[in-house]
Amino acid sequence: MILVNDRDRVPWHAGMTVQDLLGAMNYTYVLITVMVDDVLVPQEDYHHREIPDGARVTVFHLAHGG
Amino acid sequence: MDIFARNVPGSTALLQRRTVAVAGCGGLGSNVAVALARAGVGHLILIDHDVVAPDNLNRQHFFRDDVGRPKVAALADHLRRIQPAIGLDLRERTLQPADVAALGAADLLVEAFDRAEAKRWLLEAWCREFPERWVIAASGLAGIGRSEEIRVRRSGRIIMCGDFASDQTEGLCAARVLLVAAMQANVAIECLVEEP
């Protein structure tokens, strides 16, 4: 099981990547930053970075404005 | 003149030894920098390529006679009026991913960019170069009201403030922008004081 944003529990499977998780969560935001167990995953790694079972994932939506 | 006499006891000496990089000196960055200078942070690296425009004055810490001046230069003048001894490193340029390694003097980074794409690459570059150092970012500060939706979220060395949803196309109001800027500054000060 993966815990996302301290709220949502998503079933884990072997080989599950960050991109798989975002798909399972139906994330539609394009501009996000993803942390797996408090370590940032660069966008270029989403398709091949595997998430361990029991991981805590944080997804930050990045909105324009500063 | 001791402007820090009312500071939280013990905080000033710690903050005066610290260096903070502020990436972007607009609505967030200019107001964060003012809060950090008033708190006693000893050194700031200010990074922005832009000049002050009239439509900045509804929320950014600039004045009418700053219009047309580089933001980093105008902001430096205002910060020195608050704290003349503050150390300032002014970088009037567009920050690029390859430039992040040159921010090694900073104990902490304040991300204060406009564009979400730039926020993302800056977070990625900072975490790659300096994974043990804090970055205080922002997401979602537009519109009016809805103060209760603004919050702080943390993961590892990234701390992010905002409502995580509103977009600047809604329009920008000083009160709400300053709320997020003040939260960023407050979190930054907390990190700088509590980390040995």
Can you describe what's shown?
Chain A has one helix at 18-24, and strands at residues 2-4, 8-10, 32-36, 39-41, 56-61. By secondary structure, chain A is mainly beta. Chain A has a five-stranded mixed β-sheet with strand order 2-1-5-3-4, with helices on one face. In chain B, helix 2 packs parallel to helix 3 and helix 2 (27-39) packs across helix 5. In chain B, helix 3 links the parallel strand 2 (43-47) and strand 3. The longest helix of chain B is centred in the C-terminal third of the chain and has 21 residues, at 174-194. In chain B, 34% of the residues lie in helices and 17% in strands. Chain B has a seven-stranded mixed β-sheet, sandwiched between helices. Chain B starts with 10 loop residues before the first helix and ends with a helix. Classes of the chains: A mainly beta (66), B alpha/beta (196). The A-B interface holds A 31-33, 35, 38-40, 42-43, 58, 60-66 and B 24, 26-29, 111-117, 119-120, 123-124, 127-128, 131, 137-142, 153, 155-158, 160, 162-169, 172, 177.
